Amino acid sequence: xxxxxxxxxTYPKQNRPALRDVSLEIEKGEFVFLVGSSGSGKSTFLRxxxxxxxxxxxxxxxxxxxxxxxxxxKVPQMRRQLGTVFQDFRLLPNxxxxxxxxxxxxxxxxxxxxxxxxxxxxxDLVGLGGKEDRMPGELSGGEQQRVAIARAFVNxxxxxxxxxxxxxxxxxxxxGIMKLLDRINRTGTTVVMATHDQNIVDQMRKRxxxxxxxxxxxxxxxxxxxxxx
Amino acid sequence: xxxxxxLSEIGVGLRRNLTMTFAVVVSVALSLALFGGALLxxxxxxxxxxYWYDKVNVSIFLCNKGDAQSDPACTKGAVTDQEKASIKAxxxxxxxxxxxxxxxxxxxxxxxxxxxxxxxxxxxxxPDQMExxxxxxxxxxxxxxxxxxxxxxxxxxxSVQDQxxxxxxxxxxxxxxxxAALCVMALMLVIALMLIVNTVxxxxxxxxxxxxxMRLVGASSFYIQLPFxxxxxxxxxIGGVVACGMLMLGRYFLIDGGLDLQQKMQLVKFIGWDxxxxxLPLVLAIGxxxxxxxxxxxxxxxLRV
Lengths: 229, 305
Fold this sequence. Notes:
The structure holds 2 protein chains of 2 kinds.
Chain A: E1 2-9, E2 19-26, E3 31-35, H1 42-49, E4 57-62, E5 65-66, H2 75-79, E6 82-86, H3 97-106, H4 112-125, H5 141-153, E7 159-163, H6 171-186, E8 190-194, H7 198-204, E9 207-212, E10 215-220
Parallel strand pairs in A: 3-8, 3-9, 6-7, 7-8
Antiparallel strand pairs in A: 1-2, 1-4, 4-5, 9-10
Helix pairs in contact in A: 3-4, 3-5, 4-5, 5-6
Chain B: H1 3-16, H2 18-48, E1 58-62, H3 65-70, H4 81-93, E2 97-103, H5 105-116, H6 120-123, E3 133-138, H7 144-151, E4 157-162, H8 163-206, H9 208-217, H10 221-256, H11 261-264, H12 273-302
Antiparallel strand pairs in B: 1-3, 1-4, 2-3
Helix pairs in contact in B: 1-10, 2-8, 2-10, 2-12, 8-12, 10-12
Protein name (chain B): Cell division protein FtsX
Subcellular location (chain B): Cell membrane
GO biological process, one term (chain B): cell division
């Protein structure tokens, strides 16, 4: 699903690489936590997977494709198989819940019939059935994140990337979001989640990848947030 | 492709930047109207030039039968073959002459009909009313006077005309106006393009949420850019339509109504509606394409896709 071979990334005009010689593989259907302090390279890792950036050295494979060799005009096709969720939700404030989710299908040219069918389905899945016509501003933070997850999942991606999805939420709401991500994972979708939330990582007992100053320092099956000695 | 979705995005974009859209429409309209006006002015100049205008400098008109009664220069009757031959021989001897054309009455009639064919006055003319002439090309156009003194008053010569003196001033005035119009047009065009670039920038910024999401869910760059380009093209097209309206009104008020030059200057042939209409597609096409291209170029700078 995702394979990094000796990947380094140095941003222009910076001496210190943001990622240094990282090699790892994430299989289909896995649930992976990406942990590390701020500036450890988590965001760079996700940006490389989304091909917002290209690796300076090494090879990045996502969904079996070598991203260095993927031409620009094929990138959108690749991204259609990825879903993305962010800490700040990134919903469109002037569209309703259903319109926000439908937007992800409209802009890739899916038919209206398809949208009419899949939007209520995915809203039910995230637990927002009945709130289709609300505006994002009327929803709680947890509900807004559910809308964002619905939008990321409506095109049935192979891989869901979540960048601190619980960063703005209280612990109880976060648990709900994690349950939802777990449910999505159980449908066969690979989930990669960057997080600072120790409780969540410790409770879920999933694979943990830790970065520190751009290096891969830990890759542990059924891990916890901090070091285990 | 979902047309309705794209159209609604364009509508939202245009309304959001209403003042900017208005400025784009006005500047595109003005620059295109000046452009079209310059084209029409050039056409007017070439309409006013007769068959010989660009070929010769001096015309020696010979007396015809009608002139024998009416014109004091032709009291001895129509020109004879002998007189013609001697004029031709004298012209041939002159060093300043580069080339001599002879225009018979029939040819003169033909050329006249070509230029004025459609007017009522032209259709009342018959070939025998036309004058035969020698059309002379000089090595140095300034030496017109030499020909004039040599041939005016001579038997069989009705008049000697410096071809250019009549229209040259008018044409140089019109050419000057033409250049001025093109300069102002260039300036307006630059303004229009800068406005479009700025509009795209503002529009890209105010829609960065949407475009960011579009990018993430895998919308093609064409799909992301399309609304911006269509917005610019639409504003430009409106500008083009306004410019077309201005050109048509301009012709109407100068020639038919308003100033009514058609009535006041009956001997001048003005460009017809067909000339105006033939320019409109070009004006519309430029109005549509130029802003679209400008928007496309601006997007490369201001929108990541």
